[in-house]
Amino acid sequence: MFDSLSRQIKDAKKIVFVTGAGISQESGIPTFRGKDGLWRKYDSMQLATIDAFYEDPKLVWEWYEERRTNILAAKPNAGHFAISELAKFKEVIVLTQNIDGLHQRSGSRHVLELHGSIIRIKCTVCDFKDNITTSFDSLPPKCKCGNILRPDVVWFGEGLPQDVWDEAISHAQTCDVMIIAGTSLVVSPANTLPLYAKQNGAVLIEVNPEKTVMSSEMDLSVRETSANALPKLVELVSTG
Ligand code: APR
Questions:
Q1: Is 101 near ligand 1, meaning CB less than 6 Å away?
Q2: In the chain, which segments carry CATH 3.30.1600.10?
Q3: Measured from the CB, is residue 30 less than 6 Å from ligand 1?
Q4: If I label 109, which of 16, 51, 95, 207 is the partner at 20 to 30 A Cα–Cα?
Q5: pLDDT digits (tens, 9 = 90+) for 93-150
């Protein structure tokens, strides 16, 4: 599966993963744009934007509560565990667009959440922010200061946390191999990370059962699910 680049993978010191909803699909969390995609049922622009939130915070919260319940019940899958296992042999950084926390729950230590976290809740006004894994008995939930709370996620039209994004670029620019797993690469600026890596001579490997808009940029496209492919990567690296 990775044979054509086995030398580059074995010699790599630093491997950066860019992951998306596809890597959590085998944990039972629907992707956004795939055939089972969330956006099929809901209009993303109606729910995942700051305007939608202020227009109807209860509706947006109902959608997030449904997702939180599903995500908190989900378990990391073999793809997540393979990435945390790989960190025993290489420097591994995970740049994820996912908000489900499954990389951390599978043991990955260096995870940058580019689009925030559905588990972290913050106040829309004061500086309250905390991980909350219980469900709320009334929606939208209120902060102690009296204002409404929101998930600490990046909505369409909002910028990524600047410090997280700056660090993500520096990792993309200093890796030997970038593995892009489970993302359609249609959302910016996350989809520019492979270009930063390529500009600095990194090898690009895509793990995705389907083609993406950037497949032509890749040095290798593995048309497999991440749960199937990523354990094979650990095998390759751990056999020296
Ligand atoms: N293994 C690997 N890839 C998979 C799997 C799997 N088991 N199942 C699906 N995929 C692929 C699909 O082929 C698709 O290319 O995962 C990708 C999922 O793409 P999207 O649904 O667009 O999700 P993502 O790329 O993470 O979206 C980026 O858009 O909606 C916003 O903020 C949201 O972070 C999200 C961002």
A1: no
A2: 30-73+116-153
A3: no
A4: 207
A5: 999 999 999 999 999 999 999 999 999 999 999 999 999 999 999 999 999 999 999 9
Q: Is the pTM of this model over 0.85?
A: yes
| pLDDT score recorded for residue 38 | 73
- Active-site positions? 115
Nearest by Cα to 203 from 11, 32, 19: 11
Q: CA–CA separation, 95 vs 18, rounded Å? A: 5
**Is residue 84 classed exposed, middle or buried when 0-12, 13-18 and 19+ CB atoms within 10 A define those classes?**
buried
- Which of 24, 27, 156, 184 should be mutated for ligand 1, with most atoms under 8 A from CB? 184
Domain 30-73+116-153 indexed as CATH 3.30.1600.10 = yes
Question: Which ligand 1 atom sits closest to the C-alpha of 38?
Answer: 21
**Both structure tokens of 147:** 């204002």
Q: Does the C-beta of 212 come closer than 6 Å to ligand 1?
A: yes
Show contacts of 50-53: CB within 8 Å, 24+ apart.
50/155, 50/157, 50/158, 51/157, 52/155, 53/150, 53/155
DSSP annotation string for 85-101? HHTTTSEEEEEE---S-
pLDDT (0 to 100) of residue 29: 94
